[in-house]
């Protein structure tokens, strides 16, 4: 396949016959891909000004020429950042596609993600959130190299949890100083790329992530607590609470749904609540 043919294929995958939003510079990049003015020297041209980025790229899976389908096995930098065109002559007037969080990028989240989905089509990113907002190190071996950064990325868009994960009792997301994120939200319970099951659970079995650690609560038991079987998070909040058992602040109201106003929780054992033999 020639570079011209590849460009037309990319343009077709990116834009098709759909009308693309003119947010930021989407229209500019649409025209740029259609023009297909790629650099004859390819990545060698880019490395003259972007040596650091090129070094990271070459050490990453994206930069592995031996793997079929990687950018390096094709047109390298231009596969993600668009045709070079007149960029080398006048970078300001002729920008390349810059991927990242919206405050850093120069194209909409939709257009950015369409670039990623050409190769990662089995993923389901949010329409308003660029892949590169979380996968910040795409020029390295691992875009999110550890679970601390993974969870910090989640908290950037879920500020309502910032305080909660630093409450007196948490689910291991932070250390005893309330600062170091220790576990990855998407690795343990949620699917960062989207899910059929709200709120972005990894599995339709809502309690499955809980039972990976709390196998003694799974049962089946001879004496089942019917209120418990549906969803652990009905009573517990895994993100953190002021209760040592991670009970929700409104737990008495939860119990009252079946037990009325009678105070049952203070007299109940863990076995009675979760089921027992």
Automatic annotation (TrEMBL):
PANTHER family recorded: DISSIMILATORY SULFITE REDUCTASE SIRA, SURFACE LOCALIZED DECAHEME CYTOCHROME C LIPOPROTEIN
Entries under SUPFAM superfamilies matching the protein: Multiheme cytochromes
Annotated organism of origin: Shewanella submarina
Pfam family, one: Paired_CXXCH_1
Leader sequence segment: 1-21
Keyword Phosphoprotein: no
Keyword Protein transport applies: no
Keywords for the protein's UniProt record, in alphabetical order: Signal
Name recorded for this polypeptide: Cytochrome c3 family protein
Superkingdom of the organism of origin: Bacteria
Occurrences of domain Doubled CXXCH motif (ranges): 225-262
């Amino acid at each position: 396949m020639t570079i011209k043919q590849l460009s037309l294929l990319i343009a077709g995958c990116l834009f098709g016959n759909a009308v693309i939003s003119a947010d930021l510079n989407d229209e500019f990049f649409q025209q740029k891909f259609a023009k297909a003015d790629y650099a004859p020297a390819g990545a060698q041209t880019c490395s003259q000004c972007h040596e650091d980025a090129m070094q990271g790229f070459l050490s990453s899976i994206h930069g592995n020429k031996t793997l079929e389908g990687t950018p390096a096995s094709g047109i390298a930098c231009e596969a993600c950042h668009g045709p070079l065109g007149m960029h080398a002559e006048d970078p300001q007037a002729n920008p390349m596609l810059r991927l990242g969080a919206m405050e850093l990028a120069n194209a909409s989240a939709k257009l950015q993600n369409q670039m990623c989905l050409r190769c990662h089509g089995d993923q389901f990113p949010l329409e308003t959130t660029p892949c590169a907002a979380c996968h910040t190190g795409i020029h390295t071996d691992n875009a999110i190299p550890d679970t601390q950064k993974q969870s910090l990325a989640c908290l950037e868009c879920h500020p309502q949890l910032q305080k909660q994960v630093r409450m007196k009792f948490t689910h291991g997301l932070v250390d005893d100083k309330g600062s170091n994120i220790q576990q990855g939200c998407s690795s343990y319970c949620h699917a960062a790329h989207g899910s059929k099951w709200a709120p972005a659970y990894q599995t339709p079995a809502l309690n499955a992530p809980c039972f990976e650690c709390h196998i003694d609560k799974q049962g089946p038991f001879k004496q089942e607590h019917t209120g418990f079987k549906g969803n652990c998070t009905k009573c517990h909040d895994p993100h953190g609470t002021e209760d040592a058992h991670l009970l929700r602040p409104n737990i008495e109201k939860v119990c009252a749904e079946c037990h009325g106003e009678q105070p049952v929780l203070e007299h109940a054992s863990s076995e009675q609540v979760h089921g027992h033999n």
